[in-house]
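Researcher: Please translate sequence to structure tokens.
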Amino acid sequence: KKRTVTQIEKNGYPDSIYINAAKIFQGIHTEKSKEKIQVQYGNSSDSPMMAFKDEYSRRVSYELAFNALKYQDLLEEILLDSSSYPCYSIPDELTSLLVVMLYDLQDRKFQERKIFDGEELVAEVQEIGHYLYRYMTKLAAALARCRIKRDALSIEYFVPETIWKQEQRASALPLYVWINTFKISLEDVIRDLEMKGFTKVESVSDFDHYTYAVDQHCHDVLVFPSSLKEELLNLDLFADYKLLLQ
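Model: Translation complete:
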């Protein structure tokens, strides 16, 4: 049976990913001085993370948490400006979940998320989701006001220039992938990739989208164009840990 990873698009995430992203964010969010604190995050250090369904779920949980961290100031401003915070029915321990889910809500243009087949629903995620939907119009308006105030075309313009340049450089780097030789051989990987429409080229200078090269120094390492990251991670080769992203 062919294994697949969790398919996650811009229509939301399973509840478990929001919970884990909020837990990660709780541990890394920027602590502000007492004079500047307007949003309280409480203490949820005792609550355990949910088990990751697969490596892809682990990765998107961390990505969601770090995106919330990157835009923490903006997200807090949106909550305050929309009057959706403070909310006395939501304890401080759930503020991290509120911020994480707000980032995702604006990322999918304030569209409702779908419920995944067979998904284990989490009461806290459902509660925060319904609360954000009630304030959806006010939240979208608050984001628009923030953008107008800063003359920003999108939220990417709220990121400091140094971080933006680092991200641009990182996104252009080729992807290096290890072959797990305990599970599969180079020949079998090449055969599998060719069946999926990939073409082997001599070097990164020959890249043209669905192409890859074998590293000149490590023959159990493949190199792919950076644009293929999402597609690669959805291959069963990654779901079965036969290929590992460096």
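Researcher: Any highlights?
Model: The first helix runs from residue 15 to 28.
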